Amino acid sequence: MRNGILFLTLIFISTTVLAEVKGQFKVDKTVVAPKQDGAYLVRDQYNARKTQVEMILSEKPLDLKAAAAALVPHNQVINQPEILEANYILLWVDSDGKVSMNAKAGGVQYINSTDDGLKAELKVNTLEHVAGRLYTPKPVKPMDGPEYEVDLTFDTIVTKAPAGKPLPAGGGDAGIALMGMQKAMSKDLTTLNSFLTEETIARLQQDYNTSEENFKDTIDILSFWLPKKNWKITRGEILDENTAILEVEGDLYEGTQAVYMARMKKSTSGWKFDQATMAGMIQ
User: Fold this and answer.
1) Contact at 8 Å (CB) between 123 and 95?
2) Which domains does the chain have, with CATH numbers?
3) pLDDT tens digits for range 183-219
4) Burial zone of 283 (CB within 10 Å; 0-12 exposed, 13-18 middle, 19+ buried)
5) Which of 20, 44, 27, 158 minimizes the C-alpha distance to 87?
6) H or E stretch covering 258
7) Cβ proximity of 171 and 180 under 8 Å
8) φ, ψ (nearest 5 deg) of residue 252
9) Is 199 within 8 Å of 264 (Cβ atoms)?
10) Helix, strand or coil, per DSSP, at residue 209
11) Hey, is 11 helix, strand or coil?
């Protein structure tokens, strides 16, 4: 869950440009010794209106190009088949030098930061390039489980896609279509489907369901993908003539707002909603 200074996090990274990383994370008899790392921009995990660098230090090659093409690269990376059962280390680097860590070792996640037990020495810390060392001056003893140590050095270029074409306020025609879909969510299935791509309809609806059942199921999923209420399109960008990405803010639940990313596809009958997901909460 983690952007704001730069709008989109669509970063084209391939496994061939991953930088080498040295060092290890050690807990009990388990050693995580990543052989490569890659970096990309994500939403700040504590305030999704801001941007931070996320690094993944992996023992196995990953398809980061596929992750970059996703609405939320972090979610795509950690769900790749190659990494589901593997050990890895995720780092989030803030502009002020704070580094947070989530090390997955032996099926257990070890979460820490430079606020509590870790030390970072960053030689370079920009949205384009991160280099330095992260280590534990002494072993860290978590509240539950064995103590661990970490000592990692990295030097990674943050690769970003060329910027797309910004859309006007409200997201232009793509934004009008998205807000039209929001209104259709209180109407009926036929009206709602007129705002959805054929692929989305096929994903969300079943032939054996009644129209009423499909309408309810589709609303339930859209309400999970997008704000519950108070939608506001804050930014939009055209990636190509048939694809637009919209940034939407709204209520995750009463009293808490979040940032959502929505993908729109252009068809012969206009812009249609394809997919969306929450990028992170807003402080």
Assistant:
1) no
2) 15-157 (no CATH), 165-281 (3.10.450.50)
3) 999 999 999 999 999 999 999 999 999 999 999 999 9
4) exposed
5) 27
6) strand 256-267
7) no
8) -70, -45
9) no
10) coil
11) coil
